[in-house]
Amino acid sequence: MFDHPEYDGHEEIVFVNDESSGLRAIIAVHSTVLGPAGGGIRMFPYRDAATAATDVLRLSRAMTYKMAMAGVPFGGGKSVIIGDPHTDKTPELLEAFGTAVERLGGRYVCAEDVGTTPADMEIVHHTTRYVTGLPGRTGDTSPTTGATVYQAMRAGALAAFGESDLAGRTVAVQGVGNVGRHLCGHLAEAGARIICADVDAEAVAGAVERYGATAVDPAEILTVEADVLAPCAMGGILTAEVVPKLRVGLVCGGANNQLAGPEVDELLAGRGIVYVPDYLANVGGVLSGTRLMLEVDDARLAARVAEVFDTVSEVLQRSRDSGVPPGATADSMARAVLAGARG
């Protein structure tokens, strides 16, 4: 594992196998320099353990950078459960996962992610104290995440088009589930035109009905002509093969790890496409998920959401001034925060 291409000095990587419940999971603690490692539980039918390991290593590193740029006292971690959330998820499996988290003694604090829900977190909570996003408490973080993606998109539009107003702009939203749906609400209110796609036909129908979106086939969403592409589904969708086919001026969405690799950051910049680093845009999940522990009230949370515009603007300005692509610029700024904390 130490020679894995995505290994980045991770402090701890735990492989979990519980035969009685069928649980197969990986927990990755990337950094606890700023505090306990926080990060969601992703449940997905990975084709093999190697693919799951790659995902959890990348996701946990991104969480460290997200926490650092958000200015919250948490480090970065992530976990993945190998399995189909629609057919393999059981209370016994979730409780077994909670037991694994509890064994870490608070070094990792889990929350919902793709394939898990606040209700699932309640079950995980049966066997561990170290969980957030419980129903009736912080609950669903997607409304706040949709709001921060919108603020990040406004900042990206200012850099790409010279104005932050999204009225009349066409935004292609890939994925209209939790975060994508809330983003569509903000876009519709702002007067943007929405093109959407999702493998869930019901979610697409809802976006068309509620927000006047135009639906396209999921295979077409990355190459439609628009002003903005908003990836809000799974990560790794922006590849060296896809970038030449993009017909947008800005990429900004809620998905994690949108770039298949760091070279895509350079490729987007080379085409003159402004890229808002994903962990800056989707920081709302962190802001909402930690608000109870940090005693953040509604007014302060709203202010933190609004501040995302300024953070993204600063990163994009530094990127322009230095000639370093936005993703690498944000990573460098996050590493500087970590270095300062180490002293």
Q: Can you tell me about this structure?
A:
The protein has 343 residues and is of the alpha/beta class. The chain has 2 domains: 12-59 and 74-124, Leucine Dehydrogenase, chain A, domain 1 (Rossmann fold); 142-338, NAD(P)-binding Rossmann-like Domain (Rossmann fold, 3-Layer(aba) Sandwich). The chain contains 11 helices and 11 strands. The chain has helices at 49-70, 91-103, 118-124, 142-161, 178-190, 201-211, 263-270, 278-281, 284-289, 298-322, 326-342; strands at 12-18, 23-31, 37-44, 75-82, 108-112, 170-174, 193-197, 214-215, 228-231, 250-251, 274-275. The longest helix is centred in the C-terminal third of the chain and has 25 residues, at 298-322. It is globular, with a radius of gyration of 19 Å.
Topology:
Blueprint: E1 12-18, E2 23-31, E3 37-44, H1 49-70, E4 75-82, H2 91-103, E5 108-112, H3 118-124, H4 142-161, E6 170-174, H5 178-190, E7 193-197, H6 201-211, E8 214-215, E9 228-231, E10 250-251, H7 263-270, E11 274-275, H8 278-281, H9 284-289, H10 298-322, H11 326-342
Parallel strand pairs: 3-4, 3-5, 6-7, 6-9, 7-8, 9-10, 10-11
Antiparallel strand pairs: 1-2, 2-4
